[in-house]
Each structure stands twice: as C-alpha cells, then as structure tokens.
Amino acid sequence: MVGAPTASGTGLAIRVRDLRKTYGQTHAVDGISFEVRAGEVFGLLGPNGAGKTTTVEILEGLRASDAGEATVLDIDANRSPEALKPRIGVALQTASLYPKLTVTEVLDLFRSFYDRHGHSTGELIERFDLGEKRNSQTRELSGGQRQRLAVALALVNDPELVFLDEPTTGLDPAARRSLWDVVLDLRRQGRTILLTTHYMEEAEVLCDRLAIMDHGRILESGTVKELVGRHFHDRAVRFDRIDGLADAPLAALAGVSSVAHENGEVVLYTRDVPGTIEGLLAAAEAAGSEPENLTIRRPTLEDVFLALTGRALRD
Amino acid sequence: MRPLIQLTIANIRSFARDRAAMFWTLAFPLIFILMFGAIFTGGGSATRTFAWVDLDGSAASASLRTSFAGLENVELTDEAEADALAAMREGDVRAVLIVPDGYGAALAAAGDAPRPPVTITVYTDPTQQNQTADTFRFVDTVLGRVNLEVSGRGPAVVPEVRAVQTESLTFISYLVPSILGMALMQLGVFAAIPLVADREKLILKRLSATPLRRWQLVGSNVLMRLLIAIGQTVIIIAVGALVFDVQISGSVPLVAGLVILGSLAFISLGYVIAAFARTEDAANGMTSVVQFPLMFLSGTFFPIDSMPEVLKGVARVLPLTYLADGLRQVMVGGTPFAPLWVCVAVLAGFLILCFAIAARFFRWT
To answer: What structural domains and CATH numbers belong to chain A?
Structure first.
C-alpha cells in the first residue's frame, strides 16, 4: 500500500540545491538547499511570506524555479512535472474543493485522474472520519473536515511523497489535533511527507527533521533536538521589560549569548544562570526597578526561532 | 478518456446544483418565449368576436346568422343594439352587425322587381385599419354568398386555395430561433463564472497538481456546455412546436451544426471574460455587460430591418446577430439578414479570435 522508499540508493525523496525564485524585486526563494529522506516527515517552518509555499509549489511541479536544483523522486521537477504528478499527493494551503460536489463524488473524481490507486474511496472516508458526511456537499463541511478531505484527496493515488502545505492553518485546537493524528498515522506507515507550518508545536509533534525558513532563506535545519542543542547549551531567562534598561548592558551580563524581545518580555539566553541573574538584579536596581515575572526555562524551538530572527513566530 | 468523462459529469452535477445557472440557461429563455408568445399571439390570428343585433327575427335573419357563425375564427354574441355598441366601445367586440327589421321580407321580394338593396349596418373602428379590413372581408364573403343565392345563379368563378410559404414570419416563429440564439449566447458567456470561481478557490491549481491535462479540463467544460446546449435546443424547439405550433423546416444536421458552432463561439467569449476577470464578482459583472447588449441589439426580439440606422450598425458587428439570423434561416426560413455562409464565417472567425485572445491571456492560477 505504501509507496516504496525511492531515489535509487540515495535514500532521498527530495534534493534541493541553491533553489531560487524571484517575483519582480522580491526574492521569494533565495538560494535554499535541503534534503528530505525517504520515509521521514520533513517540516518547513517559518512565518507567512517566508517562501515556504513557493518552495513547495516548485517541488510539486506547479511553478518553475529561476535557478537551482529541485529533484523530487529522482525527477527534475522543473523539467518533467508531468512525470512527477502521478507519484505525488498534494494538499494545498486552502482546501480547494468543488463546493457543490459531495465528499464521495470529489474522491471518486480525483481517483479517476490516476492510473494507480491506493485505498478505495470508502476506505479513505472511514479512515479520515468523514463517514457521516459522505453524501454532503463539500461547502457544508467544517474547516477540520475540509482539511481532512484535502489530505484524503492527496492519498487517492497511494503517492510515494505527500506535500501538506499549512494543513492546520485556521483550524480550532480540536480539529488541529485530529489532523495531527492523521499525519502521525501516515508517518507510522513510513510515508514520506513534506509539510509546511508556522506552528512551532506542530513542527515539534509531527516532524522528524525540519528547516527554519525566513525571507526566502533557510536559517537552520536538523531535528528539533539538534536545533535546540546547537543554539542553546544555555537556558532562557525571561522577565517583563524594564523601562530605562537597554539591551546593550543586558547583553554584557555574565554568560549572556543573546537578547531577544517577545510580547513585552525580555529573553536572555545564557550559559551562566546564577551569574546572569545576579547581574540582572543589580542592573534593574540601578534603573530603580526589579525584574517582574522572572522565569528560567529550558529553550524550545520557539526560542531557536526567536534567537535566529529576533522575532516571535505567530499567526 | 476516463478523467475527461468523470470531470464532465462533475461539471454537469455542479451546474445542475447551481440554481442561478439553471435559471439563466433553462428557465429564462422559456419565460421569454412563453411571455412574448402569449402577448403576441393573443390578438393575432385568433378568434374575432362580432356583436350580432337582429331587429328582424325572421327565418332569413337566423339563416344569415348561421352563415356568419359558421365562419372559421368568428364568434357572435347576441346583443341589443345599445348593449352591442357599448360592448364595442369597451373593446369586447371588434364590430357590430345590425340586421334591420324587414330583412326577411325584403329578401323574399328581391327576385320580383329591381329595388334598392336591403342594408346590413356594420360598425367598425376606422382607426383599427387592419381589423376593419379584416371585418369587411368576412362581411363581404357572407353577403356575397347571400346575394348569389337570392339571384338564383351559382358562382361563376371560385378560387382554389393553395399554400405557398411566404418570407414573412409570424412573430413567434421569428422569436423561437432568436431565443435559442440568445440562450446559447448566455450559456457560453456564463462559462466564465464557474471557471473564475474555480480559479479563485484554487481548484484549478489543485487540478494542475494531478496528472489531469489542461486539454482534458477545458474539454470537459466545453463538452458539458455543448451537452446543455443540445438540451436547450431540444427544449426550446419543443416548446415552440407544442405550445405555439412553430414548425421547424430546416435540416437537423444544419441546425445542430449551427448550434454547436454558435455555442463554441460564445464559450470562447466566456473564456475571454475569464481571462480578464480576477474574481467571481468581476466575472459576474462582465458577463452582464456583455450579454445585455448582445441580447437586445442583435435582432432577438425585433427584425434588424425595423431598427434605427444607428442600432442597425451596432447589430451588424454583434456576433449574436449572425447566430440568430443563421438559426432563423435554417429553422423557419424568413428574410435573411446575411447569407448563411456569411453567418457561419462570422461565427467561425469570432470563435478563432476569442480562442486566440483567451489562449494568450488566460491564467490558470
């Protein structure tokens, strides 16, 4: 049932080298490189406008790149998209469903486009928990149901590689969880998945490896553990912003490697927690204040992003 | 072939579940035919009602009444003289016929000696020239027969009536092909709306991530519209024939060929609209801007010859003029606006032009 690992011995489902795409003056994709191994869930994490969707659409054969290599399942996605399309499954950022067709009709329709079939329409409906809605028109579906159907449509041809572009954007927490279960299920079956998201938690839960993208570039890639470990042997010390206390003196405190701001809080990344706090208390006192809501914690993926871009990753 | 067929079925389903599309393509043309048909055939060749005032009350006057009542499309109402004239002023009857007292006696005495003829008074409205002439025709027919009988001679000359189809059409047989042309135009132009909606909803983009080819996508849209066009043609011709007795004289392949050519031409116009409309709302607006001038200025409801010079010039450049004219020529005859080959050439040229523009400017995403 599951697409076999591919890429003739290399074990790679996707290889991207120095990929570029420019719209007018905007460098949507600005020379990125990464690899996706067969059988893994790979995440592209970044804010809206980072270039994730453009990258994915080049790999899906929907857009031509300006330069660089985009090899997908050993096929040049730029040159031979028609050879690629039968072997991949795609769920776009928006569900893109015929509004007046029923769930069953849409699934049957998409099946008719492929020579190779995996699960039957009935099995997909069961598996994606759409049984009650099988005869409903897609415009009557909830956001979560629409997304589950979009993912089901990406599987009608039993693809070797599945692209999920922001699969949970706009969903409520329950619907998001239910979609995560679907993706985790696919991961257990060993299916190769490339997914994009701007939710840290989603990347942490679903992805084997990920790349952080911003302004068309990849800032870092690796497993969640690697990314956190690479940047932070240190801890994050957080406290409410203190008026009159600038970043420069904070950065000069003992052990501090970087300073960032998030939601009115200051975050100090440090290797020397006692030394930093001692210095912070002294600096605050000199400014006629003391740090409120002071917390110390182990850094997360969110901190990695914050440290790399100086910005928080939010919807 | 399977994707093409499945997508065509999906398109037909979407269409059938879209009430607005169903109304404009199927109900709207029928409403036009039924409405205009009812208005313009109501007073046309249907029954004439005359008021019959018999002041004589003899066997001869009763026999005269029978002669009138026996005519086709004539109905008599018996009235007193005052009531009859009142009814005519109201417009309830077309004319008043008054048989004078002494009609029977005068008729009986007619053979004996020359004398002035007895007078049947006929009230008509001289402002209604056609109706008046029509009334005199009936009166002359009947009285001529009476005069012959009284004089005791058979008719010396009788007409033998044979039918020849004239070039002038009744309004309804003019209207049916016109409405068919209009319906095909709308069906084609409206192709823009679901296409733009599908692009806006990223359905076209999603489809392009499958092995489906673009020719299959376009082909399924065109195929679906052609099937609906054939359905429309059958329904409109059937309603024309069954309700208004419009006889289709042309050959089926010729009618079908023009229907398909016309549909393709206007579907490609729909694709041109889709090439320039970014949103579904814009597509809606643009189809209205295109369809209403076509509908009213292409001789759909009135012959182009009866239009003012300026509008004639407009009609001459509108493609629907040539589709409607061509359809009239192959369906019911009538005076052509342009030779059939010109109609076909104009539609084919328009199809190629629109296709080229759409191919150049249409964007899939």
So the answer is: 12-228 (3.40.50.300), 233-298 (3.30.70)
